[in-house]
């Protein structure tokens, strides 16, 4: 296909990352048109992107692909937070049923040549039996039984099935590490934005990050270069949770795992953070992924390391002020039977 002739459909453009990506993609020389799809219009300027209000859970998405003669589909409409979707059931519908309908539409469309799926390293899970680094060929040590991780595992299974049924379509699956940045709203960034951060006593989770600008870059790169395969995508290096807390200059309170889970339930109800059992597992054990294939086969290199990406995010946070004392009091009231253990530094220092 000639440069500038590609017609790219992007799902999930009502959210900030999807909107920013679609707008930046429209400026790529290899792209002729970008069609953004979502159930509600984007809140900000989308530039030269053509917006189509459509629900990918509905078969009507096939008509959009056929009418616009779409040749490249970028699937970004996978949601990690039940609150933003209107509840866990709606989240699962959007993630799993939406992906199934989108893939069914792509399967029927003879014009579709390339599919890019934004997946996540959450698919590997987090447990005490994990390897030091997951490669793309490894399975999680414990199969996810619920939540976002189970959704992602199902989505990836459907994508692999699509690739078998349409071997003529190049399928690129990007398993991105936790995306971080000033504009990112996710369970993990909400956790780091808390004025007092609960941690699991006796554990120091391994963290890897991908800066939001590198996420947009790797998606554009995947569209332009059409390299099929599954790739872990993350910034260089590992950051321990204790190191991250020191860089944030946020006070931490160490508690047993069950107490952090109870605090998480309270924080979720108060809409301060979106805790889940899988989030608790990640904050206990963390996760590391090998990115050799990203460099050698995909040919992509993030501009920021894990540490640099986190430092950029930390600079965007505002001081906690008096919220620290207020939240400590609320946590104490919410967990009257659980004595707080000291932070890793021995004191709660703000």
Q: Care to give the gist of this entry?
A:
The protein is α/β, with parallel strands linked by helices and about 350 residues long.
Notes on the protein architecture:
- By secondary structure, the chain is an alpha/beta fold.
- It has a domain at 6-182 and 209-234 and 289-301: Rossmann fold (3-Layer(aba) Sandwich).
- The chain has 13 helices and 13 strands.
- It has helices at residues 16-25, 60-68, 82-85, 88-108, 147-165, 187-192, 212-225, 241-248, 257-269, 277-285, 292-298, 306-315, 323-334; strands at residues 6-11, 31-38, 50-53, 72-75, 114-120, 170-176, 178-180, 197-200, 206-207, 209-211, 229-233, 239-240, 252-255.
- The protein has a seven-stranded parallel sheet with strand order 3-2-1-4-5-6-11, with helices on both faces. Strands 7-10 form a two-stranded parallel ribbon. A two-stranded parallel ribbon has the order 8-13.
- Helix 1 (16-25) links the parallel strand 1 and strand 2.
- Helix 1 crosses helix 7, helix 2 (60-68) packs across helix 4 and helix 4 (88-108) runs parallel beside helix 5.
- 44% of the residues are buried.
């Amino acid at each position: 296909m000639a440069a500038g002739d590609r017609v790219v459909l992007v799902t999930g453009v009502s959210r900030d990352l999807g909107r920013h990506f679609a707008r930046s993609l429209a400026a790529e020389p290899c792209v002729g048109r970008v069609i953004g799809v979502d159930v509600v219009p984007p809140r900000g300027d989308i530039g030269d992107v053509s917006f189509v209000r459509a629900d990918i859970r509905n078969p009507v998405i096939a008509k959009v692909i056929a009418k616009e003669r779409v040749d490249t589909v970028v699937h970004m409409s996978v949601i990690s937070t039940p609150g933003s979707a209107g509840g866990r059931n709606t989240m699962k519908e959007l993630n799993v049923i939406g992906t199934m309908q989108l893939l069914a539409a792509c399967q029927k469309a003879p014009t579709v040549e390339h599919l890019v799926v934004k997946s996540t390293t959450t698919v590997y899970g987090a447990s005490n039996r994990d390897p030091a680094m997951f490669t793309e060929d490894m399975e999680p040590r414990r199969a996810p039984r619920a939540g976002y991780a189970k959704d992602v595992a199902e989505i990836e299974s459907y994508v692999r099935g699509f690739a078998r049924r349409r071997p003529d379509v190049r399928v690129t699956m990007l398993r991105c590490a936790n995306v971080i940045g000033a504009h990112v709203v996710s369970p993990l960034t909400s956790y780091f934005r808390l004025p007092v951060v609960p941690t699991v006593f006796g554990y120091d989770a391994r963290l890897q990050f991908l800066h939001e600008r590198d996420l947009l870059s790797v998606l554009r790169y995947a569209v332009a270069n059409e390299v099929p395969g599954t790739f872990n995508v993350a910034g260089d290096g590992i950051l321990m949770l204790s190191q991250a807390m020191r860089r944030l200059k946020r006070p931490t309170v160490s508690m047993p795992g069950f107490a952090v889970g109870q605090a998480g339930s309270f924080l979720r109800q108060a809409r301060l953070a979106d805790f889940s059992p899988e989030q608790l597992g990640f904050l206990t054990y963390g996760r590391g992924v090998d990115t050799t294939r990203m460099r050698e086969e995909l040919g992509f290199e993030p501009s920021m390391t894990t540490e640099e990406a986190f430092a950029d995010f930390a600079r965007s946070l505002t001081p906690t002020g008096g919220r620290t004392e207020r939240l400590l009091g609320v946590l104490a009231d919410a967990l009257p039977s659980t004595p707080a253990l000291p932070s890793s530094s021995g004191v709660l220092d703000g």
